[in-house]
Design a protein that fits this description.
By secondary structure, the chain is an alpha+beta fold. It has 2 domains: about 400 residues, Creatine Kinase, Chain A, domain 2 (2-Layer Sandwich), CATH 3.30.590; about 70 residues, no CATH class. About 40% of the residues lie in helices and about 15% in strands. It has 15 helices and 18 strands. The strands form 5 sheets. A 10-stranded mixed β-sheet has the order 13-8-1-6-5-4-3-16-17-18, with helices on both faces. Strands 2-7 form a two-stranded antiparallel ribbon. It starts with 6 loop residues before the first strand and ends with a helix. The mean pLDDT is about 95.
Length: about 500
């Protein structure tokens, strides 16, 4: 039976400028500027962080798990999110959300947090040190950074079935969810003489399955760190998505993947199309195919284009909702919107791209690039076209091309501003965020599955939150409202 699809997004932002043009220093300036303005003084709790845990059960001695960088800027926000420096990038990890629409709202809240942090940071810097942030996935010099999705799935689900079912989705979904890219940066990409790719990330992936996230990137990441009751839950850590400027693309990315995971839990992998015989090759070739006509041979002896895969997968999701209802993913009206928009985007990229240029990032970007190229009679490898690509993702509203192309809005600006400060009420993020807001002086640290209090007497007290769908507004709102001190809250929880 499908379990509730708690989900969220971790976005590493591209960064340029700053003191000494050092990205680590610049990223720290961004995070600290936001935290020091009273937004948060709560440290991240690294207790239990195990990025080397592998879903396949055995350690891969050839793999290098992500390093836990405890020395870099790292804080917890009142909306339940995490803001920190990850390697050489500022990262916003959204709070846990219960539906695709809610998770999209908190991804947009992350953009607003980063804009505010950028403004605060640049006020403190000399003019020549100004920082710029980009919501993209590569720096044009061969370095890629991630927009990672997370989905709660049942521990009872065989991980081999996850691989079997989800590889077709992850190699093909770029035709509606790709952010688009001018040129190529990797050796394989340059050999293809790519003028434009559907995805920013596709050319950087080298394996089908694996633990790593920065080298030998896999289509299916095996990191097994549930941040929840490990006997009941697993967190599917998806590293293959692009960072979308289109809110509709973000919603469909989260919604389609949630639907397919629920369908997998409910009905098994047999309902899914066969895997491409060479998934990494398929991923890269689909990214290069703006015509959407390229086909790959599959293990069930069928040749499929990326569009064919997505069409069949949409039908899997639609059939699941018809047979079992939408509750595992979200309310009926919201899931219907996900299915409707997924279908519109899928048909639009094939039949009439102008109809989806307001919600498919790569279509919107390609129109700008082709218009500029044709107007000035430029070659495909002209540096000015790559500059346009980068400017599409600029986080500054006055500079961002994504802000000018008429992308459809999904949430009001007032709702986004509210989400910057307030947590979702549907998951344990509510308890975390409200505690950070109400008792900042008594909280030593927090992480996804616990909050650590220091009430001045006795040992530190850790409040565990091992079930992501508890700690909600409904379950803890009245308790938090009545507790005027952290001691009162802890006493009430103990009772």
């Amino acid at each position: 039976m499908a379990i509730a699809k708690v989900l969220g997004i971790e976005t590493e932002y591209g960064i340029a400028g700053g003191p000494e043009a050092d990205p680590i220093i610049a990223s720290s300036v961004i995070v600290n500027a936001y935290a020091q303005q009273g937004r948060s003084r709560i440290n991240w709790d690294f207790e239990g962080e195990r990025p080397d845990m592998d879903a396949r059960g055995l350690p891969d001695l050839t793999a290098f798990a992500p390093v836990v960088e405890t020395h870099l800027a790292n804080t917890v926000l009142t909306n339940g999110a995490r803001l920190y420096v990850d390697h050489a990038h500022p990262e916003y990890s959204s709070p846990e959300c219960r539906t695709p629409l809610e998770a999209t709202l908190y991804d947009l809240a992350g953009e607003e947090v980063m804009r505010r942090a950028l403004a605060l940071a640049n006020q403190s810097l000399e003019l020549g040190q100004a920082i710029t942030l980009y919501k993209n996935n590569s720096d044009g010099k061969g370095n890629s950074y991630g927009c990672h999705e997370n989905y709660l799935i049942s521990r009872a689900l065989d991980f081999n079935h996850v691989i079997r079912a989800m590889v077709p989705h992850f190699v093909s979904r770029q035709i509606v969810l790709g952010a688009g890219k001018v040129g190529a940066e990797t050796e394989s990409g340059r050999e293809s003489s790519a003028g434009f790719q559907l995805s920013q990330r596709a050319e950087f992936f080298e394996e089908v399955v694996g633990l790593e996230t920065t080298l030998k990137r896999p289509i299916i990441n095996t990191r097994d760190e549930p941040h929840a009751d490990a006997e009941r839950f697993r967190r599917l850590h998806v590293i293959i998505g692009d960072a979308n400027m289109s809110p509709f693309a973000t919603m469909v990315k989260l919604g389609s993947t949630s639907l397919l995971l629920a369908a997998l839990e409910e009905g098994g992998p047999e309902q899914f199309p066969g895997l491409p015989r060479h998934p990494v090759h398929a991923l890269r070739q689909y990214a290069l195919d703006v015509s959407l006509t390229h086909v790959e041979d599959c293990e069930d002896d069928v040749s499929r284009s990326a569009w064919d895969f997505q069409d069949q997968l949409w039908r899997v999701g639609e059939q699941y909702v018809r047979d079992h209802g939408p509750e595992a993913v979200g309310p009926e009206d919201e899931v219907n919107v996900v299915l409707e928009q997924w279908r519109i985007m899928l048909d639009g990229v094939r039949d009439d791209r102008a109809t989806v240029a307001d919600r498919v990032d790569w279509v919107a970007k390609l129109r700008i690039v082709e218009g500029y190229r044709d107007r000035y009679e430029l070659k495909d490898d002209d540096a000015r076209l790559q500059a346009i690509d980068l400017q599409y993702h600029d986080l500054r509203p006055e500079r961002s091309l994504a802000q000018r192309v008429g992308l459809r809005e999904l949430h009001s600006k007032s709702a986004i501003r509210e989400a910057v400060h307030n947590p979702p009420g549907s998951t344990r993020a509510y308890f975390r965020g409200r505690c950070v807001e109400k008792f900042p002086e008594q909280i030593v640290a927090a992480n996804w599955d616990s909050v650590v209090f220091d009430v001045g007497a006795g040992p530190l007290q850790r409040v565990p939150m091992l079930d992501p769908v508890r700690g909600t507004r409904e379950l803890t709102g009245e308790l938090l409202e009545k507790s005027t001190t952290a001691i009162e809250l802890l006493e009430a929880l103990n009772r």
